[in-house]
Amino acid sequence: MSLRTAATFARRELRGGLKGFRIFLACLALGVAAIAGVGSVRSAIQAGLEDQGAVLLGGDAQAEFTYRFATDDERAWLEEIATEVSEIADFRSMAVVPGAEGSDRALTQVKAVDDAYPLLGAVELEPAMSLGEALDGNGAVMAPILADRLGLEPGDTFRLGDKDFTLSARLLTEPDDASGGFSLGPRTIVRSAALEGTGLLSPGTLFETQYRLTLPEDADLDALAAEAERRYRDSGIRWRDARNGAPGTAQFVERLGAFLVLVGLSGLAVGGIGVSSAVRAYLARKTSVIATLRTLGASRATIFQTYFLQVGALAALGIAIGLVLGAALPMAFAPLISDALPVPTLFGLHPRPLIEAAIYGVLTALLFTLWPLARTEEVRAATLFRDALSSARALPAPRYVVATAVLTALLVGIAMAFSGAVELTLWTAGGIIGSLAILVAAAFALRWLARRAAPGARGRPALRWALGAIGGPRDEAASVVLSLGLGLAVLSAIGQIDGNLRAAISRDLPDVAPSFFFVDIQKDQMPRFLEIVEGDAAVEKVESAPMLRGIITEINGTSAQEVAGDHWVIQGDRGVTYSDRPSEETRITEGEWWPEDYDGPPQVSFAADEAAEIGLSLGDEITMNILGRDITAEITSFRVVDFSTAGMGFVMSMNPAALEGAPHTFISTVYADAEAEAGVLRAVADEMPNVTAVGVRDAIDRVSQLLAGVSEAVRWGAAATLLTGFLVLIGAAAAGEQARTYEAAVLKTLGASRARILTSFALRAALLGAGAGVVAIVAGIGGGWAVTAFVMETTFAPIWPSALGIVIGGVVATLVAGLAFAWRPLAARPAQVLRARE
Q1: 395: exposed, middle or buried (C-beta count within 10 Å: 0-12, 13-18, 19+)?
Q2: What is the pLDDT of residues 170-226, one digit of tens each?
Q3: Can you give the pTM of this predicted structure?
Q4: Of 380, 559, 523, 494, nearest to 776 (Cα)?
Q5: Neighbours of 679 (CB within 10 A)
Q6: Short name of one Pfam family for this protein (predicted)?
Q7: What is the DSSP string of 321-350?
Q8: 3-state secondary structure 255-321
């Protein structure tokens, strides 16, 4: 028979409607919708960033320098290529408000602007006024959260460094805020000219300058970027243009979106179990039809093609529903999503995420329907009994096993290509496959334990019936444990990861972290600074070091990016210090420190772990641009640098003669009792207003806020996975309703009451849910440990309240699904049921 005949049979089968395929469609549609929805939101953000790139950047292009202003030559070239130039200095400082009972202080990120700012976009203030009017004289504008923290109202005075400023208005909207990346303090904007006399931008102070440019309409951005690289690659200039106006935000959105898509794939895997169960149950009901077709001469290929085409058509319908939902829901909720995001969005019909979701849906449908469909070949013409498929062998023909392996590899490969996160994708795929293997083994173990425990339940008939049903030949245990277990495992893993990250930040770090980082301490201020902090009995320890910032431009004469790729040490500027001898805590792993009073060619000691990641060896030369000057140093030692303590850690430490003559400041970490921190801060700030104090607890709170947002998004993704698992659970309960009806009829005939039968059903559901929950805990803790230890490289400890909640959730979910389909079996009359089975 031909494929056309199979298509005819499939079309006739589809006339029966969607009965038995509702869960199939729901699972597939929900998984595809989750992936399409996440992708659509990500594409909307990316489109918004591209559309508003110039506004977010603050100009058509930007040249950025670290801890210096542009030279006359650099400024002249920028003015030559641009129609307008705006100069901005960005740095941290302490905003101080004097009071009768002492001064109040808060960390702020200061932006010093010229008259041309902003080149693009608009600054929105409260009360409404122009930025020029607000910054007139010594005027300033401040973020509302900072003004409220300091109790300031428009017209009040506060101090930056050695100078008083007047708060003119609250800063509501800053058009280029997204381009600045992560900051520890709320924003304050002042005029650059007003900073004279503050002492805040002394030589060696930690600040950045940005030169925003508006370009002619015919400007060639690629050519300008290449020219900037050619002219100033050795002077530490960093060039950006409007095509990448907020790179940090774009990268964060891309990575978070990729992670959420992988979470969505977990949900699709859970849905795949429901798809497989639905196809298996449907084909089991079609055994007599298949046997009849075989009797009439239909070949195995024709039978397979018939149901393959039928299931394929239904899968296409499910995928189409998912794509419509994934495209429509983000647009429907676009106003709410846009208001919740700090970046521009451009919602619309974005084809790429829909295509990706469709590909995922097709591959998942193929992967999870192939084995049930392969079982149709095992139905012979003489096989006209109901459970033919359930008694078939465990594995289908070898070609289907090979096809399954190929589809799995293809799905993982496409996920790696689409997400761009190869390692994360492999971890996710390995976790899903491993979890499925554990759950399958757990389902068999649960059935075995139920069979062994059933004889011991004599005298407790409800429990014995429940154990007998779990250990019986039906695959209810496998369906429940697989569907609910995988959903709970994903949620459990995310709960473990989230809990351990929060513990690492909010619990572990404060035990070992300093109270403050003091930065911008001038060299002549160091003796008095140490006298203040070391003379305070509440201060436990003080660590100080000279600090400069440098950009690694070359490694052994080759561009650093060509050698190290996108390693974090190469991206942006890094802290550099100098010392004539290593501290007592320094542990050198390889090489030797330079002799005291060494005055030869520059030498550098490099962090050992980071050097190994980049591929550096003793004797290699690295070139750093520090304050516009290139310094090439030989690596003479590697040392352990532990950044996890939140203490002082420098990737690079050089011999003093190489850096001592460069303008620089000092950094100091102060460890003090929590109750004494305010006094230490006040003592330093009163005498040294130019010194900035960064509170470690404030930094922890900022990071915790970011993590809370990420965790919330991930939990929503996990909730979609769990919802899919619950749908599969409902499908399994619905599929077993006929069997439970017959079981209830037999038990009623033998004299069992409805209450006892209902108790048996409830016990069965609770035991299966508890089993799924326990297995999910094991898989979730294992997955959480792997991600925490190997990806995030922090310590792991099980979060038992979260784990207990998973078990309770599993029991409740199976009880709800099981009891929802228990009423009709209990209400059925035994005579009618048993007569129908004759």
Answers
A1: exposed
A2: 998 888 776 555 566 789 999 999 988 888 887 767 788 889 988 888 888 888 888
A3: 0.68
A4: 494
A5: 15
A6: FtsX
A7: HHHHHHHHHHHHTHHHHHHH-SS----S--
A8: HHHHHHHHHHHHHHHHHHHHHHHHHHHHHHHCHHHHHHHHHCCCCHHHHHHHHHHHHHHHHHHHHHH
